[in-house]
Structures are given as structure tokens and as C-alpha cells.
User: Which sequence fits this backbone?
């Protein structure tokens, strides 16, 4: 069986056990690393439950919302060129503004996105994106 031409499996990034700010920073770091490989990819992002109340501007990890926005702007060209899709697996109780950001897809991320609560559906969607 020749697997040389086979598409790579989607990358699964599990941030479900992290605080939201750390999860966001990890997702951006992982996406940056994927774009630096300069190969097409899709990713499944297992997101944590949202924090109670408002998210602070600066996190315990030292990254601010502004830092995360700058990072996204820096990696967006790579996402546009290489990312075949980002599948967000979010808990049922995700706040409306977070759901909006996920569904803004290409406007925010520069590549197709989908959001679901079903990891199996996310894996299937991401797998189809890298194969097609």
C-alpha cells in the first residue's frame, strides 16, 4: 500500500482542561507551528468550558487579548494558504460571543471553520477537508 501521497491526518489540539486564556494561547501556538511546516493541514480544536463572568484582558499566563489578536494577524496568511479547516468542539454552554467568533470562520481565521459539540463529527469534517 502506497501512503506517500496520502493526506496527513487532521491535528487534534486538546485544550479542554485549560483555562480559556491558556487554551486560546495554546491554539494559536499550535496553529503557528502548523503554518510554519508549510504543508496543508486541518485541525480539530477541543475547547474548554467558558469561564464564569468576563475574561480578563491579561491572563495568568501573561498573554493579553491584544497579544492573541496580534498573533492571529501574523499567522492568518499561513492559515489562509495552508489551513483546509478548523473544527471547533465546544461545550454546550459556550457564550454567544465565543460562538459568534467560531462561526465567523474565514473572516476571523482566514480558513473554513465549523463548530460542533460532537467530536466525531468534527473529526469527520476535518478529515474530509484534508482529503479533498
Assistant:
Amino acid at each position: 500500500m502506497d501512503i506517500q501521497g496520502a493526506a496527513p491526518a487532521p491535528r487534534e489540539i486538546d485544550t479542554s482542561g485549560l483555562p480559556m486564556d491558556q487554551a486560546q494561547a495554546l491554539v494559536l501556538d499550535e496553529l503557528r507551528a502548523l503554518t510554519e511546516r508549510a504543508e496543508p493541514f486541518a485541525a480539530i480544536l477541543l475547547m474548554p468550558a467558558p469561564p464564569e463572568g468576563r475574561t480578563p484582558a491579561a491572563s495568568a499566563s501573561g498573554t493579553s487579548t491584544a497579544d492573541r489578536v496580534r498573533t492571529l494577524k501574523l499567522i492568518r496568511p499561513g492559515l489562509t494558504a495552508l489551513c483546509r479547516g478548523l473544527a471547533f468542539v465546544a461545550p454546550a454552554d459556550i457564550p454567544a460571543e465565543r460562538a459568534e467568533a467560531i462561526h465567523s470562520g474565514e473572516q476571523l481565521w482566514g480558513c473554513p471553520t465549523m463548530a460542533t459539540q460532537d467530536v466525531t463529527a468534527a473529526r469527520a469534517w476535518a478529515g474530509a477537508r484534508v482529503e479533498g
Q: What stands out?
A: Residues 65-82 form the longest helix (18 residues). Residues 55 and 102 are 17 Å apart (CA to CA). Confidence is low (pLDDT under 50) at residues 54-60. The first strand starts at residue 11 and ends at 14.
